[in-house]
């Protein structure tokens, strides 16, 4: 893994060569010599990965290991230099002259130290190069590894992948029908349905397809789907389900009571996507209500369920296996050419030349269908990965080479590993480190796309390319990985760009873990034994039984630390105090004789303080669900190289002012904590790019923040005026809340934000109607408004499509807009998703007469009683969802050729306390010189 080892260091060496250290000529020469040697070695390492897997050459392994160790030492030397210089610049002296000479002396000292270390590393690398020649490591042999040229840039399809193309479900019609019958057929007791099969056969995809169907949603009162890492406790599974149902967490002692209250006497559908121990599974089922025989629990698992049954539940299973040859061929062709079909569907036609080319490609692919079955053994995951690889290859030349390579290796046993290796080795070099980062995340963990890109940026994996920001480069890298089917992007309703959550499939993660282990990319603490971590550079905490055990170790080389735990339930003060007493970790060697005082224990906050004191090279801190105390220790100011700080889902309340020392900090994320204000020193950090949390902006002026791109979610201070955002010209994402009469006028300042992509305003008393009339936001894609719009009826003379030419998603709640405003929305050229929630409209009667030519998804609120849709409106509608409280009074009239629209309708009625349930409805057709459909709710619920 050349990029994981070399990439960040080469960038740091270039930065070093341009810094003050060049004043020492000898050091400058040594740095350039080291840089040149590393570039040659980087080229060798890029070929070493594929060769290592095919040839199993121990000499190559030793050579790679020696290079890696030398590179790590060089990285330590460079980071130590920058750290000492940064520390010297922070020291405060009362006398400026003393400060000047002190800094000069310090910097000369650290330069000489750096010079000595780099000379030593250069000598060491010379020896490694000599050994390479001595033991005859043949570079020419690498040419036979990949007969085609690996990708060097991301594909054109990924560049234009604005929406995820959901993979088709092929060859599972019988299992789908079987699952449907088991979900809705009449039984005497609730049922547990186990969907069983090896990893990669498509279990999750099968269940998801059925779970999202309207008839299934209409059949159950309550639905929840939870995914989690292996071996989660029953109580944590209960907490996840309750969180999905209510949006609220609760103390452990109240979990069973509250969950039972939500499910009792209701028909529920629970999907459990994660491996659970037999003991925890039985305990989980034993605490579910069994008073409604329509209830179902669907368990997605790799292992066959035990014969032992839990009282009150019936048990059944559906087994999935590999495909036969014909189905494998169908899946391969449908996933290989799905984008071409999508483009033809959207454009309505294709040129004869393009059609002929497509036909030739299909014909070529069919020739290899039998080989595809042989090399994939009919495993759906392998087929999909292979099609993802071919989508990036030139037809027909590179296709032929890929298939020839597969044919040579088709008799090997680990067929999926062959395809995974091909997919990984073919990635552009910069993407390999990005994909490998998933190895630091637990299985079945969903991570926000934007969060991941920010961490890649802090790690040094991204750099501006061709005028694109690092964020844009990271976004394109992520799209490429999704397009290659290596990363999964589950469908998320109305998710703003970057808010999508992503993951990798189990077998892909297993492959990445092996690669990460080979490259010493990350250490994972998931068991009772804590390995030696003195040389660990990345650490992932995954031990649910003892979250803090690894932190008792000294971690001097650490660059990144990550955790992903469920948030501890609120209100457990007693349990927290007990954790302070008992969930403590003894110092290493505490049991050795003759060591007095080593039997002491440490509270979690003390371990965090120790981490910040010792691990001074940290660049990424991403601690999710790990308690750090009420206040982040002042030692946070010690980690001067920190670029990403995420402390989320915990009881943190206060950030130390010493955070202002972090002059390289790019991202702060305190979502899910009690932090509402940040010290004034924080807002003066010049490198800030992304701030996430629920924060109150300070009453004093903030710094220039010229690099800031994300501000989410903030309450404007009283001093917020039209000039407050003046310097934040690169702001792309802005979430505001609780606008007052005094701060409302500051919205005019957004007119200066020409790069703004997402604007959200929540819990506002009033919102300026100028957002739709005079303020121009040419790049805005998503707008979410919650609060009454002032003067919100733009007339044709005041309204121009050029104000919001790229708006694709609009959500309104409490805006009280008029019919005229809705008419004007119909003129927006790119509007694809429109949601009109409670009190969004003044009237209870709404007419869609024309326009909305790009609209695909429409959601209508609970206050509307009559809805009229006329023929010219919604030519491309895909979903039309209505939430209503009107019951039998609700009426929807659809005029014109409307069969397609009627098929897309889904109605949910408020049954109790804003809990909506899908209900059946009837459609009556009339004809008076035109087709008319009248849609009403059926008053009998089944």
From TrEMBL:
Residues 565-582 have a biased composition (Basic and acidic residues). Residues 615-883 form the Disease resistance R13L4/SHOC-2-like LRR domain. Residues 173-339 form the NB-ARC domain. Gene3D superfamilies: 1.20.5.4130, Helical domain of apoptotic protease-activating factors (1.10.8.430), P-loop containing nucleotide triphosphate hydrolases (3.40.50.300), Ribonuclease Inhibitor (3.80.10.10), Winged helix-like DNA-binding domain superfamily/Winged helix DNA-binding domain (1.10.10.10). Residues 5-86 form the Disease resistance N-terminal domain. GO terms for molecular function: nucleotide binding. Residues 445-488 form the Disease resistance protein winged helix domain. Keywords: Coiled coil, Leucine-rich repeat, Nucleotide-binding, Plant defense, Repeat. Belongs to the disease resistance NB-LRR family. This is Uncharacterized protein. The lineage of its organism: Eukaryota, Viridiplantae, Streptophyta, Embryophyta, Tracheophyta.
